[in-house]
Amino acid sequence: MKNAADRLLNEIDKKKNPCIVGLDPTIDKIPKFLKSGRIDSDDPFNAIGELLFEFNSMIIDQIHDIVPAVKPQMAFYEMYGHLGVKAFEETIKYAKSKGLIVIEDGKRNDIGSTATAYAKGHIGRVSMMDGCHMPVFDMDYLTVNPYLGSDGLKPFITECQEEGNGIFILVKTSNPSSGELQDLLLEDKRPVFEVVASLVDELSNSVIGERNYSSVGAVVGATYPETAEKLRKLMPKSIFLVPGYGAQGGSAKDVCPCFNTDGYGAIVNSSRGIIFAYLKDKYNKEFTPEEFHKAARQAAIDMRDDIVSALNDVDKLPAHW
Amino acid sequence: MKNAADRLLNEIDKKKNPCIVGLDPTIDKIPKFLKSGRIDSDDPFNAIGELLFEFNSMIIDQIHDIVPAVKPQMAFYEMYGHLGVKAFEETIKYAKSKGLIVIEDGKRNDIGSTATAYAKGHIGRVSMMDGCHMPVFDMDYLTVNPYLGSDGLKPFITECQEEGNGIFILVKTSNPSSGELQDLLLEDKRPVFEVVASLVDELSNSVIGERNYSSVGAVVGATYPETAEKLRKLMPKSIFLVPGYGAQGGSAKDVCPCFNTDGYGAIVNSSRGIIFAYLKDKYNKEFTPEEFHKAARQAAIDMRDDIVSALNDVDKLPAHW
Question: Do B148 and A177 touch (CB under 8 A)?
């Protein structure tokens, strides 16, 4: 399907679930049974790369039939250098082989030929020496930072149009200090994030899919529900990627304003709450490898039920679910 | 030396040159003699990684005694996946072995544990499975995007303090659309970039080196000299990383306001103007591999002379040069 929003929405319908899982593995939280035999490796970076991929593939095995998409956070792979990036590439391939949409949380940004390089590497195809063009990361979606303005965003839009992939542009993030820049009030009383929202809306109109949503989406934190309500109106065709549920304090009720009345328009992410669910008392009564698997799966199911039930309460479930 | 600004300023003194070279290789512009024998490789990504590293090492050989620092732009490596990142790592090691300061232009940004992962991977040390901490990219400096506010920047500051490395925070970028966000006027008539400048100044005070400059610097484009003059006053202890000279239209005169009256306080970058100098008519009369080498070297010398002479004209050369 040649539009990322169409692919994502179809997958959401298939799973009847707008919740996604962030693949943000940190080695101190990865279960010991996965580390044993690797700790004294002669090639410790390679061992960590293998560990990250094995951890992710176990999570993917448990959740691929429950959620429409996964969101690997590039920082946690890149921090281990090129062997970490190799594990990232393997994770993407495995997730795609299981039918999942893959959203890279990379928050990339630059201008001109550099932005084009990021866009082609992550959501397009790169030039090879023989003149061919090949996909590299081959992501369905990439998150992008708007601080450099529209000429920092257009090279990504070009790939959305040509390759049928998508981006989520940071508009209002979920962290406490997001307001230091994003909430600054302008002369006309609008906060900065509303200007970004207008820019996103303008760009979104150039890549509308068959289901009337754009493959240019927006990151809107679950921790600011009133803001989300306003932004929902300013960017009617953009799907919101919503961080901040669970670990960062956003509740199921808080994320409802991110959805349109048709029941679509947002995906809600949880990372640690799912992948490290085995560390919570709730799931951790008798810890075995199987318990680790079950905890992640159960946490993904619990999150789905929590969000779907909150959407049902406010009449925002898709009519045919 | 435990402060990145001290290391950078000493290297500037040694070379009597505040100009740096951006290592932004694009394969269509890399000379043919470097590509021959690699084009039909069975492992085309590995062949490109080797090409990028060989190209960079030739440039470094020609300029390491002229400039204080190089600035590899991560996008041009990352776009070829983990084998591109491997070439990036090899480039950093080679540049450091030649005594150069290395500034990664990555414009990374995120919050909380994710920002910490970027900071540790790029300018700090990461946790290994055995509990040790190892440097990965081991950069002297990384560029960072401020859109997420101070809790997106503090994890990087921590590494500046603990590891003695540095960051350059985007304040006012050189591209035409930078004003769409950065120039927006607030209720109090200040543009957004001045708020970012105040935040940079506040953060910069926590990592001042022996030479009274901070290892928290700012990216300030050469294409807006009046703005640079204002920003110079708002961030007196921050070194400015100045893009936009040459290819993007900034002249030697335009960059002078980025310097303090002591002759320090800025480094001026040129990428394509140096590394692809061999493509300019001026240097390209009889093109051989040696001519390619000479063109890069001569372009680096010409740039140094251009900037140093402009600084001399406005009385901004360090007194002892």
Answer: yes
CA gap A175, A181 in Å, rounded? 12
Separation between Cα atoms, residue A282 and residue A299, nearest integer Å: 10
Active site residues of B: 107
Among the partner-chain residues B75, B118, B199, the one whose CB lies closest to the CB of A117 is B75
This prediction's pTM: 0.97
Window 92-131 of B, Cβ < 8 Å to A: 105, 107-115, 117-118, 120-122, 126-130
Give the Cα separation of B291 and A208 in Å (integer).
Answer: 50
Which residues, 6 or more positions from B276, have their beta carbon under 8 angstroms from its beta carbon?
B29
pLDDT in tens, A48-59: 999 999 999 999
Q: Decide if A29 is catalytic.
A: no
Q: How far apart are CA A58 and CA A62, in angstroms?
A: 6
Q: Where are the domains of chain A?
A: 4-312
| Total H helices, total E strands in chain A | 13, 10
User: Residue A288 has what pLDDT?
Assistant: 80
As a whole number of angstroms, the distance between CA A125 and CA A162 comes to 10
3-class SS at B13? helix
- CA separation for the pair A56, A62 (Å, rounded): 10
Token match 């691929």: residue? A64
**CATH for the stretch B4-313:** 3.20.20.70
Q: Distance (Å) from the C-alpha of residue B27 to the closest C-alpha of chain A? A: 7
What CATH architecture applies to the domain A4-312? Alpha-Beta Barrel (3.20)
Residues in chain B with CB shorter than 8 Å from the CB of A134 are 44
The pLDDT confidence band at residue A206, using thresholds 50, 70 and 90, is very high
Q: Does A181 touch chain B (CB under 8 A)?
A: yes
Q: Angle at which helices B44-63 and B289-313 pack, to 10 degrees? A: 50
Place of tokens 């500051």: B157
Which residues of B, range 278-307, sit inside 8 Å of A by Cβ? none
Instruction: Compute the average pLDDT of residues A177-186.
Output: 95
Q: What is the mean pLDDT of chain A?
A: 95
Contact of B189 with chain A, judged by CB distance below 8 Å, is answered with yes
Q: Tell me which residue of B123, B18, B25 sits closest to B74, measured CA to CA.
A: B25
Task: Collect the ranges in chain B with pLDDT lower than 50.
Answer: none
Inter-chain touch B26–A120, beta carbons under 8 Å = no
Catalytic residue among A98, A107, A154, A294: A107
The residue of chain A nearest to residue B244, with distances taken between CA atoms, is A111
Amino acid letter, A5: A
Residues of chain B neighbouring A110 (CB-CB closer than 8 A)? 73, 75, 105, 107
Contact B82 A80 (CB under 8 A): no
A74-131 pLDDT tens trace: 999 999 999 999 999 999 999 999 999 999 999 999 999 999 999 999 999 999 999 9
- Between CA A191 and CA A247 the distance in angstroms is 27
Comparing A175 with B64, the larger pLDDT belongs to B64
Round to whole Å and give the CA distance between A153 and A155: 6
